[in-house]
Amino acid sequence: MPLSVCRLLLPTLALGLALPALAPPAHAEQSHVEPAHAPPARAVPAAAPTAGHDTPLPAPEDGALCQGFGPQTPRDIALRAGTNSQIFPLAPAPAMMNLCNIHTHTNAEHRGPGFPVASLDPEAGGFKCEGSDQLSAAELEDPAFGHGPFHGVKPGDTIEVHWVYSSCDVQPGKGLGACLSDSCSNPTLRVESQVFLVVNDPFALDFGAYTFDGHISGGRPQPKALPRDTGTPVVFRGSTTGPNYSQAVCSPLQVTWSVRPRCARLDITSLYNWAARGNVFEEDHSHGVRKLVTAPSLLAPMIE
């Protein structure tokens, strides 16, 4: 795809990602490597059984499904079924790629064992962590009194964080444009995903532990760490996400996804600090979500 075409597509991609992949690397199936120094993430304790993964799925979207497209995202990562037959090579492990972007979505775009609860806000959509309705008044108190430097999220919210990787020789930066270059307009892309329950708690995880801040490992830009201890990531083929797409308006692009199945608690102050200090991604707000893709014809079979 010519770079000029890619750049025209970028404004419509929200922050969800993917471009046609290159030839498969020999190590493609080694799909998950995390820095040895990653701090352990404390998974959110399971809530009452009524908040479990038996929670019914939202009603399917009305209207005709898009035709002729590859597998779409987001999906329920606990369901393995999928009949979309379009195949593309899996991206290499994160350590073999270059971090190009970090951003967040308010409410989880995916549905998983630790975040099965559908948002009650039909405009927002997405899913919430188990236990999000059982927080104390102190955990729900906003230390910025509604005027925090990172917008669109408050204590008690669920967010899904995306660490975006590119095969291009690029540096981290703003939006999807940072993931390609004039000499690399057809990158292989990968997203590492973690869902967090945002709380007012200095003993919860510090978002600063997972940011870039100029960190280089193996000669490549990398986050300082990726979350761990929230379950083995579910790896699958998918597409761009973001609210511009639906089951009727599909993304034509491709991405390898790696989604951790359980939530972790994240301190709201650390998220505010990321925005207040400034970051190379110019992120100062959380983004919207794409509705869950449920049609089997739009989902890839899960990787064994």
TrEMBL record:
Biased composition (Low complexity): 39-51
Signal sequence, renumbered to the chain: 1-23
Annotated spans, Disordered: 29-71
Pfam families xrefs: CA_like (PF10563)
UniProtKB keywords: Signal
Protein name per UniProt: Cadmium carbonic anhydrase
